[in-house]
Amino acid sequence: MESRKRVLDALNHKQPDRVPVDLGAHRSSNFSVYAYKNLREYLGLKPDTLYLYDVIQQLVIPDIDILDMFGIDVVDLGRNFRDEPGFWKDWVQQDGTEVKIPAYVDLRKEGDDAWLYNFYGKRIAVQKAGCLYVEQIVFPRHGDDSDDFSNLEDQFHDVMWFEVAGPPFPLGFEGEDLIKRIETAKSLRSGTTRAIYGLFGGNFFEAAQLIFRMDDAYIHMAADKKLMEEFLGKLLEIHKKNLEKYLSACGDELDVLGFGDDLGMQTGPQLSPEMYRELFKPYHAELWGHAKKLKPHLKLCLHCCGGVEPLLADIIDAGMDAINPVQISCAGMDAAHLKKEYGKDITFWGGGCDTQIILPTATPSEIRDHVRKNVEILSKDGGFVFQQVHNIMANVPPENIVAMFNAINE
After folding, report:
1. Cβ of 89: how many Cβ atoms within 10 Å?
2. What's the pLDDT tens digit per position in 279-292?
3. Cβ atoms of residues 325 and 378 within 8 Å
4. pLDDT attached to residue 78
5. Residue 391 has what DSSP assignment?
6. Is the pLDDT of residue 362 over 70?
7. Residue 285: in which H helix or E strand, if any?
8. What's the pLDDT score for residue 178?
9. How far out from the chain centre does Cα 306 lie?
10. pLDDT grade, residue 85 (50/70/90)?
11. Does the pLDDT at position 81 exceed 90?
12. What 8-state DSSP symbol labels residue 165?
């Protein structure tokens, strides 16, 4: 069975010939640059160029030899930009590791720190010395209680997550940029039998935290719902416009369209089911439904971290086909419970191996047992794509990574 059919069978709740596997097809299923570098050395593979496509999380584009070795069934829409020299520039990490970063990312070393600037030359984020990640420092609507969101799209430039999205961003959707998008998507489609995952984003709850700052966002949600609804309405308008452009350029080449909105934390949801239904579910339903109207063949996957079990029924009702990363270490996220209660209605894209405790600290034998148990629970009757829970972090021993994928391939 070809990888593409294997993935689509799982998403359609049919039992494929084997469990489909994802690694790096979207943000948060990938390698930290240091874990990846160590893995290649451990496997005796040539030290290929490290393409740091996600500067914020410090994630690489995995090489084809790794995808082949571990039997990976999904690829990211943007990976063909890896072969476009004009999209990359040289960068040296804090420890001296030489990498390539997207050419449009304005990252500058100043003293011991690396500062991220937006397109207007404004500092918006920083990677402090000794820190593995880049942190946001600007929240454009913090302290602003006005309900005028006419300049919201321009304020996106102050938010690091919106300003430095991975390839094929920042290509536009007109003229030569549009042609390049279409050509690259078609080239990827014709050159692989793997399923193609296109990350769109389209978050609402998370966007409120990034724009207002988390504390202000919660205050508005509880005390000024009219303002929050004005914000969400404007955000929906922007998301729908961008979605239409995105899917007109490359929607026909995709199998899975990725959305994102982190709604959970370790102990449960960040908001009550009642507040989710009142404030955010209508906008999710409208945007996700719009995607399916534009390209009915697409399957939708929501990246949503944390203990979100109390929200799952509403997420399903709003039109979502799959959820990732299925953070099984959080409250309410027991794999057997999730499969029993929701397995007929949503695909679990993740939950294959805990990355908080098990992957970095367990023995290879313990990892094998852990993975096999989760796969046995989640893969019955389809509705499961294997992925470790979120990214493989910098401190994960390479032998543990190999043990995880060996357990799948057994």
Report:
1. 14
2. 999 999 999 999 99
3. no
4. 84
5. -
6. yes
7. helix 281-294
8. 74
9. 14
10. confident
11. no
12. P
Q: Please, what is the Cα angle at 357 between 353 and 362, to 5 degrees?
A: 80
- Chain mean position to CA 282: 22
Q: How many other C-beta atoms lie within 10 A of the C-beta of residue 264? A: 22
Contact of 35 with 398, CB cutoff 8 Å: yes
Beta strand ranges found along 134-266 (DSSP E): 135-136, 195-201, 256-260, 264-265
Q: Do 386 and 28 contact (CB within 8 A), yes or no? A: no
167 band by pLDDT with thresholds 50, 70 and 90: low
Task: Locate the DSSP E strands across 56-151.
Answer: 74-76, 88-92, 98-102, 106-110, 113-117, 123-127, 135-136
b/e per residue 330-353 (b: at least 16 CB within 10 A): bbbbbbeebbeebbeebbbbbbbb
Q: For residue 295, what is the DSSP state?
A: -
Interval 16-72: pLDDT, tens: 999 999 999 988 899 999 999 999 999 999 888 999 999 999 999 999 999 999 999
256, 195 contact by CB (below 8 A):
yes
pLDDT above 70: residue 276: yes
Nearest CA to 28 out of 239, 196, 199, 207 is that of 199
List the domains of the chain with CATH numbers.
Answer: 3-409 (3.20.20.210)
A 10 A CB-CB count for 32 gives: 21
- Is the pLDDT score of 398 beyond 80? yes
Terminal CA-to-CA distance of the chain, rounded, Å? 17
141 touches 154 (CB < 8 A): no
